[in-house]
Specification:
This protein is α/β, with parallel strands linked by helices. It has two domains: 257 residues, Type I PLP-dependent aspartate aminotransferase-like (Major domain) (Aspartate Aminotransferase, domain 2, 3-Layer(aba) Sandwich), CATH 3.40.640; 90 residues, Aspartate Aminotransferase, domain 1 (Alpha-Beta Complex). Helices cover 37% and strands 14% of the residues. A seven-stranded mixed sheet has the order 1-7-6-5-4-2-3, with helices on both faces. The longest helix is centred in the C-terminal third of the chain and has 40 residues. The radius of gyration is 23 Å and the shape is globular.
Length: 421
């Protein structure tokens, strides 16, 4: 992977601390200033003390105590003046992600740090639904969401909330890959139901398998039929893993069909839960402007409205702690551990699925005794008797020693079953 970055840099602890402290000073200070109009304040100091001297050395915790509200979208129009300091940090971190990681041109994106990937995915579907309704005078029942059967549940949730139908495309049961044949069948089925406009979801790391969709399997078929479509990439899981590999990655904004991307910072990036990221091409997010939010400077373009500015600071601090090279190194180590696990499973003759550039290994359920699944907290595909798969996620805390213990227990169990014990 070539690592040429314009915004993403590794900073020293002192540089990070000073940058965040400057941002907080540029924000309103509820402990000193007379701010009479905001339904907001710092965190309650009867519960969250501000006296501890170590807080000055902890930029993320300092931000949580200060409690900045990042309501609105700070890449579009104007924003609440009271939180301008940490809004600048949010813009900086969005540039690291949109420009450096996902290859969009400078200044050609909008986005925000969302409360999670589910909201970010809903935000994308909401934008494209409204765009079709505005641009083509489309009726709601003429718009369809097209996504694979392995797609995250936030997509049918989005379809349900926005009164849209979801066309569920089957994948190959072994490779988990989309095929042109199945996409074509699904498109024809949708057309037969009166659908004319397609919101396409391509996965960059599905939740259960870590599988990655080829967006061109979708877009090639839709272009064959000359159908209007918008393409969203759900990289909530894989966004901080898949791009870091020695291969040419085109699942980003260098592909002109990609309109928006979701990434979660509270997965691989280990940010606090409730930290997602949404980025889209410039000019799209205006489709969801809530003009009724007139008391909000710049009004609102997000699903959630009020959101924590401290989460944006957390993402900024994590990325600048590592820098792109150290992050590449960290992900490479995790991928090597994943490959080691796969080699051991191969030696045992067990059936599993692994996307080559991802860190999830999904094993056939019949190979995993219930006791072992429970001991190691393996996650099933379904929580009932029909479950076919268990997954192992190679997160930062999962080391070779943990995997060795799991494999030894698995081998012992297989021997006991073979001996009829």
């Amino acid at each position: 992977m070539e690592i040429e970055m314009k915004y993403w840099r590794k900073l020293t602890a002192e540089q990070r601390r000073d940058r965040v402290q400057k941002a907080l000073k540029d924000n309103v200070d509820f402990s000193k200033d007379a701010n009479l109009g905001y339904p907001a304040s710092r965190l309650d100091d009867q519960v969250f003390t501000t006296e501890s001297t170590f807080l000055k050395e902890m930029p993320v915790l300092s931000s949580y105590i200060a409690n900045p509200n990042h309501i609105g979208c700070h890449t579009f129009g104007t924003s609440e003046f009271a939180f301008r300091g940490t809004q600048d940090i949010e813009r900086e971190v969005l540039s690291m992600i949109a420009v450096d990681l996902f290859k969009i041109e400078e200044g050609q994106f909008d986005g925000y740090i969302s409360p999670g990937g589910t909201e970010a995915n809903i935000q994308a579907v909401w934008i494209f639904r409204n765009e079709f309704m505005t641009k083509y005078r489309a009726k709601v029942d003429e718009i369809v969401v097209l996504a694979s059967e392995d797609t995250h549940y936030s997509i049918p949730k989005a379809a349900n909330l926005l009164m849209l139908d979801w066309e569920r495309v089957p994948v190959d049961p072994e490779s988990r890959a989309l095929t042109e044949e199945e996409v074509r069948k699904s498109v024809k089925s949708a057309l037969g139901c009166g659908k004319k406009y397609f919101i396409v979801i391509a996965n960059m790391g599905t939740t259960m398998f870590g599988s990655v969709d080829d967006p061109e399997v979708f877009t090639g078929v839709l272009k064959d039929y000359s159908l209007p479509f918008r393409l969203h990439v759900d990289g909530a899981y894989g966004g901080f893993v898949y791009p870091f590999g020695d291969f040419e990655n085109r699942i980003n904004f260098s592909n002109s069909d990609v309109m928006s991307i979701t990434i979660d910072a509270h997965k691989m990036l280990q940010a606090p839960y409730g930290t997602g990221i949404f980025v889209c091409r410039k000019g799209l997010i205006a489709q969801v402007m809530t003009t009724e939010a007139k008391y909000v400077e710049g009004m609102d373009l997000t699903l959630c409205g009020s959101r924590s500015g401290a989460n944006a600071v957390a993402v900024w601090v994590i990325l600048t702690t590592y820098g792109p090279h150290k992050w590449f190194e960290k992900i490479s180590v995790i991928k090597m551990r994943t490959q080691w696990l796969c080699q051991q499973l191969d030696k045992m003759g067990l059936s599993y699925f692994r996307e080559p550039e991802m860190n999830i290994v999904t094993i056939r359920a019949e190979a995993i005794p219930d006791a072992i699944a429970k001991k190691y907290n393996l996650v099933p595909k379904t929580h009932d008797q029909s479950n076919e798969w268990y997954k192992i996620v190679l997160m930062d805390h999962v080391e070779i020693e943990h995997l060795k213990d799991f494999l030894q227990d698995l081998q012992r169990s297989r021997r006991e079953i073979g001996a009829g014990l």
